[in-house]
Amino acid sequence: MGSSVRVRIAPSPTGRFHIGTARTALFNWLFAKKETGVFILRIEDTDRERSKKEYEEDIRAGLTWLGLRHDELYRQSERTDFYERALKKMLEDKKAFFCGHTVAELEAEGESQRTAKEPPRHVCSHRDGKRSEGIIRFKNDSTERVTVRDIIRGDILYDAKLLGDFSLAKNIREPLYNFAAVVDDSELKISHVIRGEDHLPNTPKQILIDESLGLPIPQWAHLPLLLGADKSKLSKRHGALALLEYRDVGYLPDAMINFIALLGWHPKDEVGEVLDRDTLIREFSLERIQKSGAIVSAEKLDWLNKEYIKKLSKEEYRNIADSYVSEKIKSEYKPAEFEKAIDAMRPRVSRLGELDSQLGKIIERVQYDKAVLLWRGKIAQSDAGDVLDELINLLSNIQLSEFNAEAVEKYIEPIIQKRGKGSVLWPLRAALSGRETSLGPYELTDILGKEETLERLRIAKRVLAV
Predict the structure, then answer these.
(1) Which residues are annotated as a binding site for ATP?
(2) Which residues pair with 227 in a beta bridge?
(3) Dihedral, CA atoms, 51, 57, 58, 64, nearest 10 degrees?
């Protein structure tokens, strides 16, 4: 007998797919996998004006990148008949009615309530059911409190009277969010509604609709808000990106899954923080989700991504890294030198998107700063010049076919013994890179090769001679 757990992610295709919706998708997916249940993707595209095909494609591409494969797919735009039947039933049962109030009248009512410091709501005078057109509203006769039994937050009570006669549909063929969601959750036999905390105000309305239609009420679990470093609601000003932009700047999907999973949920202490998918599925539970907001830390994401870059095999890393380097930069390297360069950068990058600029810095000849060559005054100009002369003479003796990091290290060891490590390696590295910070000197000689290494040493020597 199969599991009775059926969950859904229900994004609206009205904008780019963001990390908050991705977190909701992941928690639903993990819960379905843990319970051997069904994970449903439901595109909530009833907003005809704002819904766009490219945004649906962005949602699906984001889920595919994360590896969150759905078991069933539905679009609300293809389910209008279900909503129409349910709306007709509520109208026939006198549990809904057509409201003929104008926008201006409703705005005036709202302004009056704000002035009187009353909760905003519309208690309609058109509840007699005599109208046959206009917005369709729920006939709210409830005088009791509505209890939302939330797995994460416990019981939350709402005063039903404060909800007023809330809207259900623009017309018989255009349902609004709360009504369409209730009908779909029932038709698709959704057992658990796992979604963001921002949907909590919708929940008592959805419960009242469920009860009016005689439908089973799903179990609720409302996830904490995502926050920026300043603990305000996460937004673009915190550097938050659309999901696929994280891919584009070089984050790995497994690192993103791990990072997103820890936004508001935590495993047992002994499990650690670097968690593969199997571990996440095994450890996940709704009861371990926190109530308070979850801070999205770019630093933690960078750290996790670096850990996942380390976990890749050499072949996996090279294949993925290659896609982040432009053809312009690749063309400036010989194939063997290119592989050495991306291998050398592997422990140094947090995002693979950094590779293009970093590899460009290695191959680019910069205008030398004499102060950099002299370690900002720590090495005398005459001593640095002598070191470069000795390096040129020694490295010229290495056969071209044998020129590599190991050979260079062996050949210059006598100079290091005589002059000291810093006095030799700093001018060598600065001459090869032209920068204060770069790869190590042995890595640079290995990547640049004999001819380019010697040429850069000669150019640096000429700079010091001026």
Answers:
(1) 236
(2) 233, 295
(3) 140
Q: Strand 167-171 to strand 174-175: parallel, antiparallel, or no bridges (unpaired)?
A: antiparallel
**Cα dihedral value 419, 420, 425, 430, nearest 10:** -70
Enter the pTM of the model.
Answer: 0.92
Q: Which domains does the chain have, with CATH numbers?
A: 1-74+224-309 (3.40.50.620), 80-223 (3.40.50.620), 312-361 (no CATH), 365-465 (1.10.10.350)
What are the backbone dihedrals phi and psi of residue 119, each rounded to the nearest 5 degrees, phi first?
-60, 135
Per-residue confidence (pLDDT) for residue 360, from 0 to 100 = 96
Phi and psi at residue 98, to the nearest 5°? -90, 130
Tokens coding 166: 């809330």
| Mean pLDDT, contiguous 10-residue spans, the chain (466 residues) | 85 96 98 98 92 96 98 97 97 95 91 90 87 93 94 97 96 96 98 97 98 97 94 83 96 98 92 94 96 95 97 97 97 95 96 97 92 93 95 95 95 95 96 94 96 96 92
Using an 8 Å Cβ cutoff, are 185 and 218 in contact? Answer: yes
Q: Which residues make up each annotated binding site?
A: 236
Q: Is the dihedral of CA 292, 23, 255, 306 positive or negative?
A: negative
